[in-house]
């Protein structure tokens, strides 16, 4: 008996171990101990005290003798338990006024005997499980149920039962377990005891509640039947809802019932799903009431009755008990759950709101919420529960939400709504849709009515600000829990033809409430709450858009989006129909909703099937027109009224349209109705219709032998009119005396086929109309009647068997995101920008701009160009950067009313600062700066794609340019490559050269500014103006405007072409107003266009730009740049006329300008002759081209560029040198060679000074350049030996060019030229006298003559005597080289001219001849004389030549006369010289 009994609870609460005990003590010993405790406590009570021998004997038996183990009771600490309560029991005995006769009666009470009997049974047993569990529990349960026991004794019994369950004494191994559990529940739910202090009584009841909760949470709960669980629920609920109970007890009951609710609804996971509602389940809970609270303390005067009842309970028939025990009931299930939920529904019902405390309704709502949370989707598997949630629960919750102003009630109702929406939203879509619509309108009543909306309720109760905040907080849970909430709404509702645009309307609703002014009607927390919802939607769409790929749409998405498109078209049609039905019907044809507007049947069918979105009043009036009688008949003929009473048929009919006001129109409708109704009634109606037509609360129908009602057309007509009148009479508040049933019957006498309608028929009609008014469509908006009618229509069309939910694919989600975002784009952007304009907190502004950035990303991902363009316009407007009137914010006295553009230097800041009105006010407007940042971010994100808004963006560029706020040189690489100078900035109005220091504040600074206002100096900007300008410059630096042009340069051809056209369209027209900015802006635009045109290399576009390079009123420098642009474009534009004109114009500009800035012309000019240029051949032959090149070649600044060009042309492209361009090229080279004359200055300076000058690099470069040019001239001379060149004697021109440089003032160049000339001339083979004469006549003799000039020979201080000597020697060499091959005449002419030249030289420069020069000349002449005498030229054969030679030599060099060995002969005058002729002839041969 004292052996150790171990047991453990597993994870499910089931006992494991050798004996399945959860304790170490023997369970029999434990049970005996509990019996002893109970008996001891009862004996100490005055009611149970016993003084007879029998009592002592029984007590002795119970506690044992002295021979027994005295320590047994001590070990169980029984005495301590009894002693602890002896004093209180004694006091209760003393205060007990019950007489001795009553005590005598109680001496043999069965409660004490039951414990003695149980003790005997236990002592005789070895295993507690051998004893029937009910036998063990029954004494304790009798005590619990007994009203004659004290609360203390009842508590001991409750403690014992709790131990038995907890310790496993009562477990799954126990006999008759289910019956025992049922009896435990019954005893606990019928617990009675003597009333005492409230706190003591509450303690006992709390123990009862705890034991019920423990029992439900234990593994044994599965054995409880439906009735037992219902008892537990009802008892707990009655305690929780009894306002007479203490707050502590009610709260304890609430906590216990909350735990019990979790257990009950968790059981749904184990219950087999049902497809239909069981017959035995209750469905109508209208009259359900809370059970009475009878548990607990009982007054003394009721004790006698209670005792007799207890006696009867103890002495029940054993056979009856045995039958009860053997009957096993199934575990609790859907029945008790349904009943529990039904009780809660009745509590929350608005119709019962005055029967229950508000706290009770709040508690019921929380329990339903717990039930839905726990059961979750399991509810949808049980049609009875789903139906209950769908109709009474959802309806009552929505009524509470839309009507109550009690925050305590509103909060749990909203929580329950959110839970139902989240858990059962897919099954209860109609309820959710209506709830969302009514909640939104409750928060924000509609200002304008939209016809055709069956759920509009403009008269909904106006809500308090706090209530509106709570409503929105509840809705926020829906969207915050799921990033795809709004998209799912869009799919489920907006893409459903028969549902509202819930997603779009909800987002627009949130956008409207996000505006700050909505706080006037709500609370300050509402706008940020709604804004958070919209931003949550944006975040989700933005994140999903990153995974979007442009591909074929999924089939499911296509189908739904097609429906949405069809729905949108249909709504537009209905809007037209509601205004002008005939026009709307034509629109239906155009949208393919009907095929023929003249087909009455098709139009009627459309009205019948789509009446939900039509204006019911319009439809009724339209159908009732006389011209539409056929349409009316077809329309009503589509209804099926079979099996319906006339009033029921009228209800069905009048749901589709509203009766017009004119009696004739009503008559036509009723007449058509009567005809159709009679046609539908085949067998007529009896009082008890077949089961399918019986109301839900009806029972099985027995065979009906009542009269069949089958009225004719006239009867139906009259009855219909009477029903309409009855409906008005019974429900019009202005009718003081309502019609009674007897009155109604009397009015219809003789109208049923000539007799009276059966009484039951008219009674049912009367009752139906009285109980439920026929609500005309669009009537009683916002009232309870309207709500009931709308809800009834909703429920009547709901079919849970058809409800399905399709899980969206990720690709499909993006498609729906795109369409939804398009629908709400304008509202979201308007909302964000409106808040942005009024916001002042930097965090809010940054958050809004971040949201705009997400909008950019979404639009880009989904290709929403039109929306992006609209957003760009808005940002442009907010940026304050266009040429419109500036928005002036934060006005300061230190800012001038008018701020001219002023250039100023700031100490410590690199570069100049341009202060202007734009720079100041933009710098002071943080919102404008932020908008500008977002604008340029958007521009760059779109890769600068040109849209409609770009005309304004161009305007911003021009405005910034005109205010000197952006750098004009966007294409520095382009400028460097073609050596274009930088573009000029727009000249400021004032320029202050003196650097200004900032932070000059205080009185002196203010006074200084005041004095400057009266000075003639330029107005100096204030510190605030400068600081604002610096802020502007910093912002513009972050914008990186130049990067826009860089991105644009990388875009496609079509985009670049649009950009160029926009720029060209923005070219300014010259006027006095724009004179200051005209040239700079024109050049900036044109350079940009030229650069992009060259980048595209599109001839057509280049022609367009080229045409814009004319007729501009520019300065000389601007004109020069314009010519450079033209030349660049003409390389690709085949326009020879324009080409020649531009080249010619390039050579006629001012020489000083050409010298300083002509590089930008030279480079394009040279590029025109590239091999791949279309005009290469043309220009190389064009004289004007070479003239222009010669013009620039004559300028030192450009000659360095031209020489390499000529070098490449002459050496690498010899075929390009032709007789036609030979002379122009030669002339160009001669101009360049002549530039070396500057070297004479350098030579003179060096000659005058003892040491060389420090930096002679420039002179050396020029001299080298001249030498290179001379080399190229020599090359040309060599090329001129070709046949084509010799035909034009172009060699002489080359000799002339070289000879021209032989008297160059620069000695080095002169000497180099002499050498080149010597090489060229001496290398030329003369094969005829004309060539020989040409060399001398065209080159050498003119050179000698030039050197003879005193100003040449005498003006040079750096060696002209040497040059003359070399030239003379060259002349002699050439003469000697060819003299033997020439005839006498040619030789004589050259010789005579040579001597004449020497004579002239000596005559002109005799005083300046040096001995060396004289000696050199005489020596060369002496050699000539010797050679000429040797070859016989100076002989008697040529007497005249000899005579002339003698004369000249004697005059010039008398000492050479001795060298002449022949004297001139005397001859007769006129004698011919026959010999020379013969020699010439011989030579020719």
TrEMBL record:
Domain SEC7 as annotated: residue spans: 559-772
GO cellular component: Golgi apparatus
Stretches for region Disordered: 1464-1485
A biological process term (GO) from this entry: regulation of ARF protein signal transduction
InterPro entries xref list: ARM-type_fold (IPR016024), GBF1-like_TPR (IPR056604), Mon2/Sec7/BIG1-like_HUS (IPR032691), Sec7_C_sf (IPR023394), Sec7_dom (IPR000904), Sec7_dom_sf (IPR035999)
Alphabetical list of Pfam families matching this protein: Sec7, Sec7-like_HUS, TPR_28
Gene Ontology MF: a single term: guanyl-nucleotide exchange factor activity
Biased composition (Basic and acidic residues): 1464-1476
Highest rank taxon of the organism: Eukaryota
Xref: PANTHER family: GOLGI-SPECIFIC BREFELDIN A-RESISTANCE GUANINE NUCLEOTIDE EXCHANGE FACTOR 1 (PTHR10663:SF388), GUANYL-NUCLEOTIDE EXCHANGE FACTOR (PTHR10663)
Protein name: GEA2
Native species: Candida theae
């Amino acid at each position: 008996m004292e052996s150790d009994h171990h047991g453990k609870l597993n994870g499910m609460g089931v006992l494991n171990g050798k004996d399945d005990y959860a304790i170490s003590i023997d369970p029999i010993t434990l049970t005996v101990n509990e019996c002893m405790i109970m008996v001891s406590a009862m004996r100490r009570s005055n009611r149970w005290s016993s003084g007879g021998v029998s009592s002592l004997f029984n007590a002795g038996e119970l506690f044992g003798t002295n021979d027994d183990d005295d320590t047994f009771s001590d070990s169980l600490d029984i005495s301590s338990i009894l002693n602890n309560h002896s004093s209180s029991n004694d006091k209760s005995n003393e205060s007990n006024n019950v007489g001795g006769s009553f005590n005598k009666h109680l001496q043999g009470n069965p409660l004490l005997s039951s414990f003695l009997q149980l003790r005997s049974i236990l002592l005789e047993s070895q295993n507690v499980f051998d004893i029937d569990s009910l036998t063990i529990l029954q004494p304790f349960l009798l005590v619990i149920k007994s009203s004659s026991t004290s609360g203390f004794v009842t508590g001991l019994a409750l403690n014992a039962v709790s131990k038995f369950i907890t310790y496993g004494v009562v477990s799954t191994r126990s006999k008759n377990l289910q019956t025992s559990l049922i009896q435990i529940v019954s005893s606990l739910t019928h617990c009675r005891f003597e009333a005492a202090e409230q706190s003591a009584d509450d303690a006992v009841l709390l123990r009862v509640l705890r034991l019920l909760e423990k029992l439900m949470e234990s593994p044994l709960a599965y054995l409880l039947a439906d009735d037992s669980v219902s008892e537990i629920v009802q008892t707990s609920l009655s305690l929780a809802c009894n306002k007479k109970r203490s707050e502590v007890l009610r709260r304890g009951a609430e906590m216990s019932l909350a735990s019990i609710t979790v257990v009950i609804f968790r059981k749904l996971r184990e219950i087999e799903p049902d497809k239909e509602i069981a017959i035995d389940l209750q469905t109508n809970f209208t009259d359900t009431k809370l059970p009475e609270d009878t548990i607990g303390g009982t007054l003394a005067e009721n004790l006698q009755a209670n005792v007799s009842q207890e006696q009867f309970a103890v002495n029940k028939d054993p056979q009856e008990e045995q039958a009860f025990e053997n009957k096993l009931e199934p575990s609790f299930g859907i029945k008790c759950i349904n009943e529990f939920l039904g009780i809660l529904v009745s509590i929350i019902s608005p119709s019962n709101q005055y029967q229950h405390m508000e706290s009770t309704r709040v508690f019921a709502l929380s329990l339903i919420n717990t039930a839905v949370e726990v059961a979750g989707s399991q509810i949808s598997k049980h049609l009875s529960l789903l139906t209950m949630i769908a109709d009474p629960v959802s309806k009552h919750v929505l009524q509470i939400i839309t009507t109550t102003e009690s925050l305590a009630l509103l909060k749990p109702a909203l929580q329950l709504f959110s839970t139902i929406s989240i858990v059962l939203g897919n099954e209860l879509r109609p309820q959710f849709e209506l709830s969302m619509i009514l909640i939104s309108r409750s928060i924000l009543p509609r200002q304008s009515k939209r016809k055709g909306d069956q759920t509009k309720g403009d008269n909904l109760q106006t809500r308090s600000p706090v209530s509106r905040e709570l409503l929105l907080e509840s809705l926020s849970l829906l969207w915050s829990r799921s990033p795809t909430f709004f998209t799912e709404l869009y799919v489920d509702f907006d893409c459903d033809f028969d549902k509202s645009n819930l997603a779009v309307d909800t987002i627009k609703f949130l956008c409207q409430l996000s505006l700050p002014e909505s706080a006037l009607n709500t609370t300050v927390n509402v706008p940020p709450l709604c804004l958070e919802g919209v931003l949550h939607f944006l975040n989700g769409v933005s994140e999903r858009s990153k995974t979007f790929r442009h591909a074929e749409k999924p089939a499911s998405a296509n189908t739904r989006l097609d429906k949405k498109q069809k729905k949108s078209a249909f709504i537009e049609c209905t809007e037209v129909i509601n205004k002008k039905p005939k026009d709307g019907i034509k629109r239906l044809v155009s949208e393919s909703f009907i095929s023929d507007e003249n087909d009455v049947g098709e139009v009627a069918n459309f009205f019948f099937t789509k009446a939900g979105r039509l204006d019911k009043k319009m439809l009724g009036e339209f159908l009732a027109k006389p011209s539409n009688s056929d349409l009316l008949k077809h329309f009503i003929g589509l209804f099926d009224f079979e099996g319906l009473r006339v009033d029921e048929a009228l209800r069905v009919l009048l749901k589709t349209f509203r009766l017009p006001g004119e009696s004739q129109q009503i008559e036509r409708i009723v007449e058509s109705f009567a005809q159709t109704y009679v046609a539908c009634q085949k067998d007529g109606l009896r009082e008890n219709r077949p089961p399918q037509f019986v109301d839900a609360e009806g029972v099985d129908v027995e065979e009906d032998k009542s009269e069949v009602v089958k009225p004719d057309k006239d009867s139906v007509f009259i009855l219909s009119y009477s029903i309409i009148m009855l409906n008005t009479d019974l429900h019009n508040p202005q009718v003081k005396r309502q019609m009674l049933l007897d009155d109604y019957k009397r009015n219809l006498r003789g109208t049923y086929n000539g007799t009276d309608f059966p009484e039951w028929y008219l009674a049912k009609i009367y009752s139906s109309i009285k109980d439920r008014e026929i609500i005309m469509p669009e009537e009683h908006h916002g009232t309870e009647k309207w709500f009931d009618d709308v809800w009834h229509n909703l429920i009547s069309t709901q079919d849970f068997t058809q409800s399905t939910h399709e899980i969206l694919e990720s690709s499909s989600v993006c498609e729906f995101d795109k369409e939804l975002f398009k629908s709400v784009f304008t509202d979201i952007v308007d909302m964000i920008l409106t808040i942005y304009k009024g916001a002042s907190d930097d965090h809010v502004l940054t958050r809004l701009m971040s949201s705009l950035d997400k909008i950019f990303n979404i639009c880009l991902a989904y290709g929403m160009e039109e929306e992006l363009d609209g957003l760009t316009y808005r940002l442009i407007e907010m940026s304050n950067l266009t040429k419109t009137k500036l928005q002036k914010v934060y006005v300061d006295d230190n800012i001038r009313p008018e701020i001219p553009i002023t250039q100023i230097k700031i100490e410590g800041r690199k570069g100049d600062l341009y202060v202007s009105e734009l720079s100041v006010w933009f710098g002071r407007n943080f919102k404008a700066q932020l908008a500008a940042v977002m604008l340029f971010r958007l521009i760059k994100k779109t890769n600068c794609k040109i849209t409609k808004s770009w005309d304004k963006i161009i305007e911003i560029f021009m405005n910034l340019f005109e205010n000197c706020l952006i750098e004009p040189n966007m294409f520095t690489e382009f400028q460097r490559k073609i050596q274009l100078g930088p573009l000029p900035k727009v000249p400021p109005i004032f320029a202050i050269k003196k650097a200004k220091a900032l932070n000059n504040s205080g009185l002196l600074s203010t006074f200084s500014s005041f004095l400057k206002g009266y000075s003639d100096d330029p107005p100096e900007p204030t510190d605030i103006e400068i600081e604002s300008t610096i802020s502007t410059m910093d912002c513009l630096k972050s914008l990186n405007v130049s990067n826009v042009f860089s991105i644009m340069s990388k875009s496609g051809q079509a985009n670049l072409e649009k950009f160029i056209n926009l720029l060209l369209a923005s070219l300014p027209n010259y006027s006095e107003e724009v004179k200051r900015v005209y040239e700079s802006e024109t050049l900036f635009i044109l350079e940009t266009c030229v650069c992009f045109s060259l980048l595209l290399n599109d001839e057509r576009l280049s022609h367009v730009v080229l045409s814009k390079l004319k007729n501009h009123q520019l300065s000389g420098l601007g004109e020069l740049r314009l010519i450079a642009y033209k030349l660049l474009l003409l390389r690709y534009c085949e326009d020879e006329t324009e080409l020649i004109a531009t080249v010619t114009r390039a050579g006629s500009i001012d020489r000083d300008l050409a010298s300083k800035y002509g590089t930008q012309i030279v480079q394009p000019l040279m590029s025109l002759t590239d091999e791949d240029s279309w005009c290469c051949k043309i220009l190389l032959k064009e004289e004007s081209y070479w003239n222009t090149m010669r013009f620039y070649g004559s300028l030192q600044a450009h000659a360095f560029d031209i020489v390499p060009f000529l070098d490449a042309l002459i050496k690498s492209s010899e075929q390009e040198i032709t007789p036609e361009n030979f002379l122009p090229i030669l002339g160009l080279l001669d101009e360049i060679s002549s530039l070396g004359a500057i070297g004479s200055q350098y030579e003179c300076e060096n000659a005058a000074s003892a040491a060389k000058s420090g930096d002679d690099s420039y002179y050396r470069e020029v001299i080298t350049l001249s030498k290179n040019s001379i080399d190229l001239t020599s090359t040309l001379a060599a090329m001129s030996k070709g046949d084509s060149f010799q035909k034009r004697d172009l060699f002489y021109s080359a000799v002339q060019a070289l000879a021209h440089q032989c008297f160059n003032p620069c000695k080095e160049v002169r000497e180099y030229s002499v050498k080149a000339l010597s090489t060229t001339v001496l290398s030329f083979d003369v094969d005829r006298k004309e060539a020989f004469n040409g060399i001398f006549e065209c080159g050498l003799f003119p050179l000698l003559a030039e050197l003879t000039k005193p100003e040449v020979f005498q003006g040079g201080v750096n060696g002209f005597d040497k040059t003359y000597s070399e030239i003379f020697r060259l002349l002699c060499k050439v003469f000697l080289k060819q003299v033997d091959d020439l005839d006498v005449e040619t030789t004589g002419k050259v010789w005579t001219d040579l001597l004449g030249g020497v004579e002239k030289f000596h005559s002109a420069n005799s005083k300046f001849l040096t001995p060396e020069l004289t000696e050199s000349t005489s020596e060369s002449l002496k050699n000539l004389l010797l050679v000429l005498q040797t070859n016989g030229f100076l002989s008697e054969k040529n007497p005249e030549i000899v005579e002339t030679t003698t004369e000249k030599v004697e005059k010039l060099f008398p000492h050479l006369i001795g060298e002449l060995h022949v004297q001139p002969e005397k001859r007769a005058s006129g004698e011919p010289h026959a010999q020379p002729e013969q020699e010439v002839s011989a030579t020719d041969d």
